[in-house]
Amino acid sequence: MSTDYQQAREALGVRLRELRLSAPGGRLTGQQLAEAYGWNKSKVSRLENGRQTPTTDDLRKWADVTGHPEAYDELLARLRGFESHIRSWRRQLASGHKPVQDTHLGAHVDASVFRGWESSMIFGVLQTPDYARSIFTRYAELQRSPRDTEEAVRSRIRRQEALYDSSKRFHLILWEAALHALICPPSVLMAQLDRLSGAIGLDTVELGIIPLSASLKIPPATTFWIYDDRQVIVENWHAELWIDDSDSVATYLRTWRTLHESAVYGADAHNVINSARRALNPNT
Fold it and tell me: Strands, DSSP E only, in the chain?
């Protein structure tokens, strides 16, 4: 968890404590507040000390029971402020993958220049429906989230319409390992590699691949997207990080440009893809 996120959560906890201690009818003890809603007393302590992120319902109840219902909007704004930067998969996937895909679809509409790095799978914007279906199924199993695979696939495919929008540009870099990852059946991966080859010819796409044999200046680590050189979305196992402070964005731009130096393009990228196809099916 980032320091900024934790500091914001602790600051919210301090504010919650202030409301409890300044209740109009006299300060409430943690025990009294917990009993009002059937909470464990330890929950009050965790919230006030920044060790647990409150839900919107927690904030509403806190404001009401402390006699400060007018404080709810302020508390909600604080919560939204730091959750907009760290979006846990647990919360995002509570209703399935489609709402997450719709959020990214909106972000794609608003941006014109995209820079992406992916080390483990094919970019969502270049995925075939069958490949995307495998990805969503695996992640739903991992995150124990609702299965809305078909709706999520349709939303992801709609994002690909941006590839044919002449006002947009996609500068994408893949590590070769992503071409070999059998997260799906071999036949699905073969079709996905064919789709990837076709993307190299699109006017809006610059697709680079870093061969496994390439010399690297930095390790091929976490997946990220940069939108219009002003916002970064980083994917971790527990959350997405939405980053917009200029210093951090600059770091990711340097990272992307450093990786770019090790990538191959055009015919050389085709050769890497064809090599992956032959490894998958030696008879091709």
Answer: 86-88, 113-118, 169-175, 205-210, 224-227, 231-235, 239-243
Q: How confident is the model at residue 7 (pLDDT cuts 50, 70, 90)?
A: confident
Task: Specify whether the CB–CB gap between 269 and 207 falls below 8 A.
Answer: yes
Using one digit for the tens of pLDDT, what is the confidence trace for 190-202? 999 999 999 998 9
CA-to-CA dists, residue 173 to 120, 139, 252, 260, angstroms: 11, 22, 13, 7
CATH homologous superfamily of 3-84:
lambda repressor-like DNA-binding domains (1.10.260.40)
Residue 156 reports pLDDT greater than 60: yes
Locate the domains of the chain by residue range.
Answer: 3-84, 88-280
Q: Which of the listed CATH numbers 3.20.19.10, 3.30.450.30, 3.30.450.20, 3.30.870.10 matches domain 88-280?
A: 3.30.870.10
